[in-house]
User: Fold this.
Amino acid sequence: MMSLDKNIEYRLQLIKPILQEKYNVRKIGVFGSFARGEQTGKSDIDILVEFSKPIGLDFVELKNFLEKTLGKKVDLVTVNALKPQLKEVILSEVIYQ
Assistant:
């Protein structure tokens, strides 16, 4: 089983109530190099998010909030935005919080 960087995991758990209340986040998970433990100092954090209802332009605000909270550049995507050829791989490695 893959394990997530404890600092990232802790920060995501800490802000989970804000994510749910302010941004209507139903599920949030990390995939990519941080999920595999292969990140470098230059790695961004790939985050997969599902919403309980559409958030429109708040998506950009959420991305900025996550970058500020996690101290790293964030690549924020929804399941529907995943490229079909990558979807299965990403969904198999995502670590949900």
Q: What stands out?
A: The mean pLDDT is 94.
